[in-house]
Design brief:
The protein is an alpha+beta fold. Helices cover 40% and strands 17% of the residues. It has 7 helices and 4 strands. The structure holds inosine-5'-diphosphate and magnesium ion. Inosine-5'-diphosphate binds next to helix 4.
Amino acid sequence: MATNRTFTMIKPEAVENGHIGAILERINAAGFTIVAMKKTALTSKKAGEFYAVHKERPFYVELVNYMSSGPIVAAILEKENAVADFRMLIGATDPSEAAKGTIRSEFAESKAKNAVHGSDSDENAAIEGDFFFSAEERF
Ligand code: IDP
Ligand code: MG
C-alpha cells in the first residue's frame, strides 16, 4: 500500500526560473522524505499520457505543450498522510487563490504555469510514481 506516498513534479517554468532548490527545501522542511527523484523531460506524447485524465478539458493542449516545454524534476515523496499534506503545502491550482506561504503562492506564475504537481489520491500517486520510476530507483 502506498498510502504514505505522493508524487510531485517541479514544472518547467519553476525549473527555468531556478526554483528547484527552494522548492525542495520547502518539501524537506514540511517533513517529506525523498524516495525517488530525477531531472528529466516529458515529450508531448508522454505529457499527453500523463494528463490523459484531462483530455476533454479546454486547457489540455496548452497543458501538454507547457509540460513538454522544458525539463522537470519528478519525485516520489513519503510522509504520513502524504497526499493530503502535500496538497496543503502546494496550495490551490490558481496561485492567486493559493494560501499565503504555500509553494504555488510563492513560486507559480499562473494557473497554467503553477510551479508544482501534486497527486490527488493514493491511487493516482502510485500510478504517477510508476510512470517515472522503476522499483530499483526507489530508496
Ligand atoms: P491540480 O494540479 O491543482 O491538481 P488540475 O485541475 O488537476 O489541478 O489541473 C492539472 C493542471 O492543469 C494544473 O496544475 C495546471 O497546470 C493546469 N490547469 C488547470 N486548470 C487550468 C486552466 O483553467 N487553464 C490553464 N491550465 C490549467
Ligand atoms: Mg490534479
